[in-house]
Amino acid sequence: MRILVVGSGGREHALCWAIAASPVCETLYCAPGNAGIAQEAQCLDIKADDIDALVAFAEKEGIDLVVVGPEAPLVAGLADRLKAAGIRVFGPSAAAAALEGSKRFAKDLCAKYDIPTAAFGTFTDADAAKAYIRERGAPIVVKADGLAAGKGVTVATTVEEACAAVDQAMVDGAFGAAGATLVVEEFMEGEELSFFALVDGANALPLASAQDHKAAHDGDKGPNTGGMGAYSPAPVCTPALEQRIIDDILTPTVRSMAAEGTPYQGVLFIGLMVTTDGPKVVEYNVRFGDPECQVLMMRLKSDLLPALVATADGVLSAADLRWYDDETALTVVLAAEGYPGTYEKNTVISGIERAEEDPEVTVFHAGTARDADGTLRATGGRVLNVTARGRSVTEAQAAAYRAVDAIDWPQGYCRRDIGWRAVTRESGGA
Ligand code: AMP
Ligand code: GLY
After folding, report:
1. What is the Cα–Cα distance from 417 to 28, expressed in whole angstroms?
2. pLDDT at position 217, please?
3. Quick one: signal sequence residues (predicted)?
4. Three-class SS of residue 269?
5. Among residues of the chain, what percentage have pLDDT more than 70?
6. Ligand 2, closest atom to CA 287?
7. Domain boundary among 291, 318, 345
8. Same domain, yes or no, for 9 and 59?
9. I need a surface site. Which of 45, 76, 198, 407 has the fewest CB within 10 A?
């Protein structure tokens, strides 16, 4: 098969790495890719949001499957355009991608179909939103309805902070059109958990659980990032909890999307809060998590590609995925010093081959480019995902940090405590 992967991050490197290993894959392209992806795929000078150019390339090159990594092109209708051109695509239609593209759509779906989530109100008027906040009290959560590059959510500890978030979105227009509608919701207490499933429109194939660390610094402190590390499976996700997530959330979500006339096809990433009342939806994403995808791909034993095709063709019940069930995978993000704020670009990285001498380690590239002479340079905020497998989170963590220490990149930094909660659990701690 001829495959095109869309995107340029660590998630897409992991997808290309898994797809390139498939005996069914003849030719693999990635648009636009990065220096790590170039080891697996032919990188194209087409941006992930250039829908016209992506469709034209897929048509011209007779692509058999397009796998879309990021959410923005899906929300913008890339899957619809590809389908209209007769090209098979892994990823939801724009109407179904509203699960991530509109918090209001997601919350209304949950309310209509009794899918557990935080109590909420939806507002297009700042005064009405503030009146609701005053009535409910703090802590309370204010969310921009649309895509806001991960910055549209304020978990407010006071009523004043929540009202300021309303003004930021609605008066200052900090998120543009994405903040013209706000969802204000109850604060949920508990442990966060991510759950992934393939969905073919009617059927779901549960993949795995994962947890990530969004804060930039150790101890889950500092500014929020796209994710500084992750591990899978999440020890908090017991078989009983997983069954509850499937029965109470995954299955009803898939059924309700079909009932609404917007069947979901692709990977569904459910962000959950494990509360004393059971698991509740924090958010839906219409893509693999980044860096969660990297740990999922490391745990996958069987060929990913037939499962992606079965998802796209609506015959997922025939798919069969096998996992390294008794192993954990953990990834540590190496980021440029200063990220998520301003940081230097084009600094030189070396030592990746040394880091990968351990057969249980793979280094995925999230933001790199290579000079003509082979010099590897950092081009983004999150730059490398040092990923390791082990028989426990503790073992995988130790292997990942050994590999991190083999990499020479003075302008980079990472958290030193990825997986701490699970490691504490494994050592019999609280
Ligand atoms: P979201 O973009 O909706 O995932 O929100 C970003 C982050 O804000 C989540 O990962 C949670 O840590 C936090 N968050 C969102 N909604 C809530 C909520 N209702 N209660 C507590 N924390 C929340
Ligand atoms: N790591 C969180 C995300 O991909 O949204």
Report:
1. 35
2. 96
3. none
4. strand
5. 100
6. 4
7. 318
8. yes
9. 45
Between CA 153 and CA 13, with CA 411 as vertex, the angle to 5 degrees is 65
Does 325 have pLDDT greater than 90? no
Determine, yes or no, domain membership for 117.
no
Mutate to test the pocket of ligand 2, among 12, 228, 268, 290 (most ligand atoms within 8 A of CB): 290
What is the residue range of 170's domain? 125-180
CATH number for the domain that contains residue 153: 3.30.1490.20
Best residue among 285, 286, 294, 330 to mutate for probing ligand 2's pocket (most ligand atoms within 8 Å of CB) is 285
User: Is 109 part of any domain?
Assistant: no
pLDDT of 174 above 80: yes
pLDDT digits (tens, 9 = 90+) for 197-234: 999 999 999 999 999 999 999 999 999 898 999 999 99
Distance from the CA of 262 to the center of ligand 1, in angstroms? Answer: 25
pLDDT higher than threshold 80 for residue 150: no
The total number of structural domains in the chain stands at 4
Q: Under DSSP, is residue 6 helix (H, G, I), strand (E, B) or coil?
A: strand
Q: Are residues 216 and 236 in the same domain?
A: yes
pTM: 0.96
Contacts of 368 (CB under 8 A, 6+ apart): 34, 35, 36, 349, 376, 377, 378, 379, 380, 383, 384
Span 287-311, mean pLDDT? 97
Which residue has a Cα nearest atom 5 of ligand 2? Answer: 289
Instruction: Say how far apart CA 292 and CA 356 lie, in whole Å.
Output: 20
Query: Is residue 353 located within the same domain as residue 309?
Result: no
Please report the pLDDT score of residue 430 as a whole number: 57
Residues 113-148 have pLDDT tens digits of: 999 999 999 999 999 999 999 999 999 999 999 988
- Judge if 289 and 228 occupy the same domain: yes
pLDDT over 70 (residue 184): yes
In a domain, 230, yes or no: yes
pLDDT-based confidence at residue 74 (cuts at 50, 70, 90): very high
**279 found inside a domain:** yes
C-alpha 128 to ligand 1 mean position (Å): 22
The CATH number of the domain holding residue 343 is: 3.90.600.10
φ, ψ at 413 (rounded to 5°): -145, 160
CA-nearest of 273, 285, 279 to 249 is 279
Q: What CATH number corresponds to the domain at position 70?
A: 3.40.50.20
